[in-house]
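Predict the structure of Methylmalonyl-CoA epimerase.
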Amino acid sequence: MKLEHIGIAVKDLAASNELFASLLGRAHYKIEAVESEGVSTSFFMAGESKIELLEASRADSPIAKFIEKRGEGIHHLAFEVEDIEAEMKRLQAEGYRLLNETPKRGADNKLICFLHPKSSNGVLVELCQSIKD
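Done. Here is the predicted structure for Methylmalonyl-CoA epimerase.
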């Protein structure tokens, strides 16, 4: 496993894209909507890892609720895995609580699953596996 990306909740994706482009010295490489999660995302390369900016696209989305409760900031850490289903089973057997029972399609051509923050020291952890075409 490696750190695949850090997810950051933002109120204004366009303004945040400008801020991170200035900070990182490069433009984002992709903007993508994930309707099932009610979010618009933007990705930046940061060395071997990525920064994912997340803006709510509807008021009832997890990102909208996160920002309402905590404000903008780090939302999750995502780790790349070879076999997401095997990793989900392993972590569940170790006592981690999964937020979804099966992997679902996420942004940037990934299958994803989240671990409940209560089982990981208050950190929302995402597992992600590249979808092979």
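Residues 13-24 form the longest helix (12 residues).
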